[in-house]
Design goal:
alpha+beta; Uridine Diphospho-n-acetylenolpyruvylglucosamine Reductase, domain 3; five-stranded antiparallel β-sheet; 19 strands; about 35% helix; about 20% strand
Length: about 525
């Protein structure tokens, strides 16, 4: 069978329409109001890497109709646009577009309404600007027994943005795009697409079945620039009677393979109510919580999450211990009751040396349990400030604004011991070549696959960024040769994303060409550039 190539409008060879940009800004200001338009200006966007300054215009539509009007106006002025929900895509490009010629940003953060909520079924419909923190507060105010799908990126990150990027967490519904019941999206020609069971009115009956009727189309709006998503319905997990974490420390690196097999057993065969397991090396643990005597001895550190009633969790503890027998000295189990006891003990110890040792345990346990229980926080964000701790605010953390350098390498690794070892050796080799440590996390996506996350922290100078990007690109290329393809790509590595599986990417290009023949929305995003 012969292979054909469908191209879309080229990305890098088309210069920015600077004159048209100023004209667009003037027209947008007249149409939407000065409070909804900024620019043209060179300082409207920030990122966790060095960027040469360039003028952009930010438009903040407040409704689906205004999104339609903004797209029509951009086309009339020869501009391409890049939509983002809140712009907090740390380490993957933040709010920046793929193509330099794209200078109009659709900032959807003003579309921040929770439109509908079914308190019986735990189904909620939100706009792009609704954050993890917004939903958590909404559920708390109503005493609704459901869990916000949290991540470590902080409470100000968009639910829709994370779902469209196929983000995940360790709450019971860990696959966030898998929780999508339906979407509304504006196509490049202004047509409003809705999933088969998605009502036209936001307060209409919410979809309760993901697949609808007929071909499944919603997926073409995930990790793509095919439309502007303006509404999404999500299924939430019910809050169980108890949430309990367990953790274990592995002091011998030679046990890596056996630990991976034990993790697969717990997830695949044991029948325990485990939402997920994170397995991190000593480098990653130190970068997150700092080093002490315990962490210095750890080669690998595992954390798992049990959800269910107290009887089920009690029975599961023995299963966890059995799975890890001979690999670790002890498995530690933490729940809210035990953390509360530790907190009381801490208050009684005052400023003693024992209190100093206990305090990090209490802080980290409370932070982890909070995120797992649907309470988003900034607990995981210090990792982004590894090279910039002096500029880390106590609250309101924003790594892009605060001058942090961060890129993510995020491949899929089969849940087999031999593959995990081969992968870890590859990461250590490539990172070491560029002067980086190798902070590895294996996060279970399913009983068969890990997503591994490797943060590259650096000074976001031109030189530091070039070195980090070279390391990231080599990790992607070498990892793909070894059978570890990324599940997600930085905006500056879209050429690598589309460099394999030509028939697949040709199909993606055909979809893009059909929905957006002029390349109006996010040109170059997860589609061959045509150059």
């Amino acid at each position: 069978m012969s292979e054909t190539t469908t191209t879309v409008p080229p990305v890098s060879s088309v210069p920015a329409n600077v004159q048209g940009l100023a004209q667009f800004a003037a027209a947008a200001t007249q149409s939407f109001g000065a409070d909804k338009v900024d620019g043209p200006a060179p300082d409207l966007l920030s990122d966790t890497m060095h960027r040469a300054p360039s003028d952009h215009v930010l438009v903040r539509p407040g409704s689906t109709a205004e999104v339609q009007a903004a797209l029509e106006m951009a086309r009339a002025h020869g501009q391409t646009v890049h939509p983002y929900s809140t712009g907090r895509n740390w380490g993957y490009g933040s709010s920046y577009p793929v193509a330099d010629r794209t200078r109009v940003m659709l900032d959807l953060s003003a579309m921040n309404r929770i439109l509908n909520f079914d308190a019986d079924l735990g189904i909620v419909t939100v706009e792009p600007g609704v954050t993890q923190g917004d939903l958590a507060a909404f559920l708390s105010e109503r005493n609704a027994p459901f869990i916000t799908p949290t991540t470590g990126a902080g409470p100000t990150c968009s639910l829709i943005g994370n779902a469209l990027e196929r983000g995940y967490g360790l709450t019971p519904i860990s696959d966030h795009f898998g929780a999508v019941m339906g979407i509304e999206a504006v196509l490049a020609d202004g047509t409003v697409y809705r999933s088969p069971f998605m009502p036209e009115a936001p307060d209409g009956p919410q979809p309760v079945y993901k697949w609808g009727t007929g071909p499944y189309i919603d997926g073409v709006f995930s990790q793509a620039g095919n439309a502007v998503v303006t509404r999404m319905t999500l299924k939430l997990a019910p809050r169980p009677e108890q949430i309990e974490t367990f953790y274990f420390i592995v002091r011998d690196d030679a046990l890596l393979e056996q630990c991976i097999e034990a993790i697969r057993y717990m997830l695949l065969e044991s029948g325990m109510p485990i939402s997920g397991i994170n397995f991190v090396n000593g480098q990653r643990m130190k970068s997150q919580v700092g080093g002490d005597g315990t962490m210095d001895a750890a080669k690998w550190f595992g954390t798992g999450v049990l959800f269910g009633d107290k009887a089920i969790i009690k029975a599961s503890r023995n299963q966890v211990r059995k799975a890890l027998k001979g690999l670790v000295r002890r498995v530690f189990f933490i729940n809210e009751d035990r953390v509360g006891m530790a907190r009381k003990a801490l208050s009684l110890l005052g400023k003693s040396s024992l209190a100093a040792k206990l305090e990090p345990f209490v802080y980290n346990s409370e932070g982890l349990l909070g995120i797992l229980g649907g309470q988003p926080s900034e607990f995981g964000m210090p990792l982004a400030y590894a090279k910039n701790l002096d500029n880390m605010p106590a609250t309101g953390r924003h790594p892009a604004r605060d001058g942090c350098g961060l890129l993510w390498y995020v491949p899929i690794v089969p849940m087999r011991g031999a593959d995990a070892r081969r992968y870890a050796q590859m990461v250590q080799r490539v990172c070491g070549k560029y002067g980086f440590p190798d902070p590895i996390t294996f996060s279970s996506l399913s009983p068969t696959a890990f997503d591994s996350t490797v943060p590259l922290s650096f000074e976001p100078t031109e030189e530091g960024t070039a070195n980090a990007m070279a390391c990231l690109r080599e990790l992607i290329e070498e990892g793909r040769r070894e059978g570890f393809p990324p599940y997600r790509y930085h905006a500056a590595t879209m050429d690598l994303a589309t460099a394999s599986q030509p028939v697949f990417w040709d199909t993606a290009a055909r979809v893009k060409a059909a929905l957006d023949p002029d390349g109006l929305i996010s040109p170059g995003r997860y589609v061959p550039s045509g150059d």
